From TrEMBL:
Its EC number is 2.7.4.2. It comes from Seriola lalandi dorsalis. ATP binds at K17, R18, K19, S20, G21, K22, D23, R141, Q180. It is found in: Cytoplasm, Cytosol. This is Phosphomevalonate kinase.
Length: 199
């Protein structure tokens, strides 16, 4: 496996329900910090790539937001769970391979084992962030409950038992995202400007 070019100074591990706005929030952070400072890592990317390869599917469509991905989601979840039981860090290692920026933003942690891997491998650098939205807001964004998906570990694994370092409320009635993200961006900017260490 290809080694990382350098150690990160900060890792922001994001989680949240489907349609909570994780991708929107993490893209906003990368936009503010810039691609030289911050990379967005998706644990689902390597999972979908491997799944597409083994099942002869269209990877671009699996990575997109459309119905193609949704028709394979339940089976892909089962397949991914089997892989994780064999090796809990498998997808985390694939997602971080080749990352060189000082700030990593993991956009889609879904299980306690995802967080545990980052806490274990990068204890000093890892901060957990939960993105929350009401069911009503998520429905307005196109979410509807799907049995076998929304009640699976991939959606519920981090609903309890985790004390998040940061909680972002992604709702129209909540304080602006800019205001909520200000302390996280400040932390990221400080981390990016600190001397590189070998932790």
């Amino acid at each position: 496996m290809e080694a990382r070019v350098s150690q990160p100074e900060l890792i922001l591990v994001f989680s949240g329900k489907r349609k909570s706005g994780k991708d929107y929030v993490t893209a906003l952070i990368q936009d503010r910090l810039g691609p030289e400072v911050c990379c967005v890592l998706r644990l689902s990317g390597p999972l979908k790539q491997q799944y597409a390869q083994e099942h002869s599917l269209d990877l671009d469509q699996l990575l997109g937001p459309g119905l193609y991905k949704e028709q394979y989601r339940a089976d892909m979840i089962r397949w991914g769970e089997t892989r994780r039981r064999q090796d809990p860090g498998f997808f985390c290692r694939l997602a971080t391979k080749g990352a060189w920026q000082p700030v990593w933003v993991v956009s889609d942690a879904r299980r306690l084992t995802d967080l545990q891997w980052f806490w274990s491998e990068f204890p000093r650098q890892t901060q957990s962030v939960r993105v929350q939205s009401s069911e009503e807001t998520r429905k307005q964004r196109g979410w509807s409950f799907t049995a076998g998906v929304d009640d699976a570990e991939s959606e519920c694994g981090l609903d309890s038992g985790v004390e998040f370092d940061w909680i972002i409320t992604n709702e129209a009635a909540a304080p602006s995202l800019d205001k909520q993200l200000q302390p996280i961006l400040k932390l990221a900017e400080e981390a990016a400007s600190s001397p590189i260490s070998d932790s």
